[in-house]
Amino acid sequence: MNADQTPPSRRTSRRRFLQTAGAGLVLAGTPSLARATESQVVFFDDFTSAATIDVGATDAPGYNWYPRKWFRTTATRPENISVSDSVLTLGGNGGESDLTRLSTAIAVDTSPYARGTVFHGGYFEARIAFDHAERPPTAGANPAFWSMAIEHVAHQYVGTFYTQWPGQAAGYSHYIELDFMEHFSDPRQSYVCTVHDWSGPYATPPGSDDDPFWWYDIANGNNIVQVGPVDWSEFHTYSCYWAPQNGSTPGHVQWFFDGLAGPTTNVYWAGPIGAPPLPGQAPEPGTPAHTSFTPDTPAEADRTFAILDQQRIALTLTTDPGFPMYVDWVRVSDSTVEVL
Known about the structure:
Layout: H1 10-20, H2 33-38, E1 41-45, E2 81-84, E3 87-90, E4 100-103, E5 105-106, E6 115-120, E7 122-129, E8 144-149, H3 150-153, H4 155-158, E9 173-182, E10 190-203, E11 213-219, E12 224-226, E13 236-243, E14 251-257, E15 260-269, E16 289-292, E17 313-319, E18 325-333, E19 336-339
Parallel strand pairs: 11-16
Antiparallel strand pairs: 1-18, 2-3, 3-18, 4-17, 5-6, 6-19, 7-13, 7-18, 8-9, 8-17, 9-10, 10-11, 10-12, 13-14, 14-15
InterPro entries: Beta-glucanase-like, ConA-like_dom_sf, TAT_signal
GO molecular function: hydrolase activity, hydrolyzing O-glycosyl compounds
Protein name: GH16 domain-containing protein
């Protein structure tokens, strides 16, 4: 950690958090932070030491966090990973050409082609701080807490073996990305939370000279969380609740900020998935073709986003190598957990 990268006080913020958790508006039928602390916690890391992190990028089993980068053979540099006063500092020392990252699971070149901890359903939380004053002008990314289907992360070694869309041509993939928090490059009073339904072959569309990519990306349009005046250099808790579809009851995700849930941060789905095209999908492929689809009530639930219930997610913390992000803790409750 550089001398000017002093993380916020974890001890003070932790006490204040425990005194106020669950005190804000929570919609009926959805969890609050208070409920999460009373539920079954299945994964928790408050970074009392770096022992839970595979800092040396050995890819060995037994760690909570791995620096190996998804879809690459490189890893986050050790100097961009540090733990002090029970706060993880990720990034800040540069020296990398892409995202600085720690993930709960990564791809490996032996069966089952993934290592780490993955999740299905549940309540996902992280308490994070950062200071825009520490963002270098050349930064190409900002602090984020998100997830990807491990079935897709393993693509590096198995192609679309785990994500092949049944009934489609070989190589036609279908997978989910669930973003809990992505920040902007300036200190505005909002952040982004998105569920992406990705599909298609990894290819250049016909008649295009673009680089190859997955052809279709359908995302919820209600993905901007307005939080009002806030000091991002203080710790804040970002949460997401994923309830898989249960019979005729649609599946559901909802996002929370410091325990507060808003009426516009909901997305619903209802399978079976069937065949493409999905509701909201672009009529023509792109690299990718970005479109939005926002079923924010149970009555609007459709096949789009239902692939989430068929996959398991790996969590990841990312930032620009030169832009430090401070993480107090990460917690998962009421989730089906698998250690690979």
